[in-house]
Amino acid sequence: MSNTKPGQAYHNNLVYPVMRAGDLALAVIEAAKLDNPGKEIFVDDKRAYIRIHAEQEMILNQATIEEELGRPSA
Predict the structure, then answer these.
(1) Which of 25, 29, 32, 58 could anchor a disulfide with 54, C-beta 3.0 to 4.6 Å?
(2) Phi/psi of residue 71, each to 5°?
(3) Residue 4 pLDDT
C-alpha cells in the first residue's frame, strides 16, 4: 500500500535539472523547449536557482544548449 497522495504522484514523475540562475540556465530552458517538441516544459524561478522540469523524460542536447548560448558550454 502506498502513502502517496494524489497530488504527490504527479510530482514523483517529474524529471529536471536544477541550475543557478544565469545565462546557462536561460539557454537550458530554451534548449529544453527545442529538444522536446510537443512536451510541456515548466520553469520554477526561485531567484537564486531555477528548476526546469517536465513529466517522465526530458532530452537536453549539448549542441542545442551551445547554440542557445552562442558559444561552447564548457
Answers:
(1) 58
(2) -165, 165
(3) 46
User: Where do the domains of the chain lie, and which CATH numbers do they carry?
Assistant: 16-68 (3.90.56.10)
Are the C-beta atoms of residues 53 and 16 closer than 8 Å to each other?
yes
pTM score: 0.78
Q: How far apart are CA 51 and CA 69, in angstroms?
A: 18
Q: What is the pLDDT of residues 42-61, one digit of tens each?
A: 999 999 999 999 999 999 99
* CA pair distance 34, 1, nearest whole angstrom: 39
**Cα dihedral across residues 25, 42, 58, 52: positive or negative:** positive
Instruction: Give Cα 57 distance to the centre of its chain.
Output: 10
